[in-house]
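Give me a protein, keeping tokens residue-aligned:
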Amino acid sequence: MTINVGAALVGVAAALLISACSSAPEKESAGKAESTTLSGPLVEQRWNLLLVGTDERVSLPATPFFQIGRDGQVSGSDGCNRFTGSVKLGENQRIEFSQLASTRMACPNMEDAKRVTDMLDTAYRYLIDHDRLVFFGPDSRVLGGWREAN
């Protein structure tokens, strides 16, 4: 059985676009207390990179991945360097990565590693469909896809 992953991501993207277009981006309320414990399907799960954009594969020494802890910390690898940072999850599948810091090893194809971290920096919303995670930018453009690690 052949699965067209790019077409599947575009289909998932269309479903989220309908949802995202029906509501304006929400602003965080200044008086709202921050939750220090995260939960949900994104948390405490390793996510391996599947695609950048809707169909581009990257060529790196190792598979890029990330994992979000209950404490709101994210850690992973861009395929070359390890990174850590913070993540906030909000209503309507809102996600925001911040304070990303990484090691600075020289690796072949650094442009692809940068594309992975740029995807995290730009992620605005997410959608989970079975074992797939798709990130979208603020303009609702598909930034890339990840697969749940077994």
The helical segments are 5-21, 110-122. DSSP finds two helices and eight strands in the chain. Residues 5-21 form the longest helix (17 residues). Residues 1-5, 12-33 have pLDDT under 50 and may be disordered.
